[in-house]
Amino acid sequence: MIALELDGVSRDFTTPDGRGYRALDDISLSVEAGSFVAVVGPSGCGKSTLLNIVAGLLTPSAGTVRVDGEPLSGLNRRATYMFQQDALLPWKTVRENVALGLTLGGVPRADAHARANAWLARVGLTPFAAHYPSQLSGGMRKRVVMAQNWIIDRGIVLMDEPFSALDVHTRQQMESELLGLWEGSGLSRTLPEPRVSSRPLSESATPASNQRTLERGRESIAVSASAGSTGRGTQKLQLTPDPSGLSSRKTIVFVTHDLEEAIALADEVIVLSAGPAARIVARHSVSLERPRDLMELRTANAFVDLYRAIWAVLREEVIKSQRGTAHGRA
Amino acid sequence: MDARRAGPFGPAVLFWRVAVGASVLSLWQLLVGLKALDPFFVSRPSAIAQRIAQWVITGSLWGHLAVTLEESLLGLIAGALMGISLGFSLGRSPMLASIFDPYIKMLNAVPRVVLAPLFLLWFGLGIWSKVALAVTLVFFVMFFNTYQGVRDADRVLIDNVRMLGATERQLVRHVLIPSALTWIFSSLQTSLGFAMVGAVVGEYLGSTRGLGYVISQAEGTFDTTGVFAGMTVLALVVVIVSAGVTRLERWLLRWKA
Fold this sequence. Notes:
The complex is a heterodimer of chains A (330) and B (257).
Chain A: E1 2-14, E2 20-32, E3 36-40, H1 47-55, E4 62-67, E5 70-71, E6 79-82, H2 94-104, H3 109-122, H4 138-151, E7 156-160, H5 168-182, E8 211-216, E9 219-224, E10 251-256, H6 259-265, E11 268-272, E12 280-285, H7 294-297, H8 301-326
Parallel strand pairs in A: 3-10, 3-11, 6-7, 7-10
Antiparallel strand pairs in A: 1-2, 1-4, 4-5, 8-9, 11-12
Chain B: H1 2-5, H2 11-33, H3 39-42, H4 45-58, H5 60-92, H6 94-109, H7 112-123, H8 127-151, H9 155-163, H10 168-186, H11 188-205, H12 211-220, H13 224-252
Helix pairs in contact in B: 4-13, 5-6, 5-8, 5-11, 5-12, 7-8, 7-11, 8-10, 8-11, 9-10, 11-12, 11-13, 12-13
């Protein structure tokens, strides 16, 4: 079944000096329900524009978007959107932020908070439920955003470089957690039986609470003891089963400029050309088996071969886009 | 807690604060004592303190103070309500904002003192002419901050909340109002000061009660001690009230890092 279909989608903008500018040109694309599609392209090629069109935040200048077979008009109510920037409401606590989609939809507060608690447990943030986003580290905030998006259980998740602001280790950890969530097994598969090590956590903006790295084998995750607790008591990850009882996988459209990330996560990688008038220049299916071990994957032969093949295409576009900006073109 | 409020230097700051105040007062007292300054023009700290003590003991201060505070508070509330609602409407509608922009700038440029006689004429010698004057000051602070807060609301927060299913009304309640409130709260200090200025200036120019009236009466009889005593009371009240506002503000904006 096709979850998402773009048919001849173009989008024009008007620059401040009044000239027209075509960001996307004739994009046609169909995404299978339950698949994970990554869109890569040089920076400024219109990847975010594409995602905004699919979300219904922007309307296409030409062409149509169909969601589950129906033409999209207005906001896409079958999708959630993880933005590149921080989109948590700073004046709401972590729990309120996670529950937001439910409370906006009219779910009674107590009920919504109970479900938010289950999700917080699932992403390992139970001790931080009453904190405000500004009190969390970058990686923790991303987990809150994931819970906020997953709790409302829509079929499609749009992600716009969600991890690009994180340092490389935190980022890999987030990618693992994302795959864990998507594959429906939550954190329980990727993070069994954590064991304490004293290695400091490499996340930036570490809050004033105790943090330590728990690791087992090659997997590692930051687990934080409650800021107000006795300090030495290690918080155990509560590995509850999926609170929403998801049975089918979500459809994910993941935009990134990082080809490694794209291949590591996706079933299919779509390459956009350099802007303006970005087109689809290549589509590669990624047949690496799941579940994937992101720590090992990047050095596997199949991964490297695929990387070389796609990079050969993407490289040209990156060079073009750099040349474009060097000549002062937008 | 106290050390943090006094800044990174803690007790040292507190000590020097007191020291600066004490030495200025002593110098003043000394210069008057040495007849270098004429007490007719500048009075002297001991006399001012005595006068305030006398007002407190006889109880004559409280009535005036209560009137001034009442006018300030009413002015603050009315000005805030008007400023916030107009700021909100214009912030949400760029069209309305462009229409009203020149008028708002013109009105804001009017010196408030020239309005005071008009207000006395329109609203009488009672508290309402003072409230009106306070409103004209508070309104603009509140208006500009609300307008800015609504316009400055983070695009991504708005998009995110809309994607999560918010209606227009929920968008206003969960994003725009809190976003504007951060601006409004941080201007509370200024607004409060303006409200008191408005009330006192109004009283000064024509009234039968209030701190401004006390000061103007003293001036009328060349009673410099009374003038300084009135100003001192006013200053102390502002310091106490703004300490309260600071606490309120810290609590309301507790989510900020």
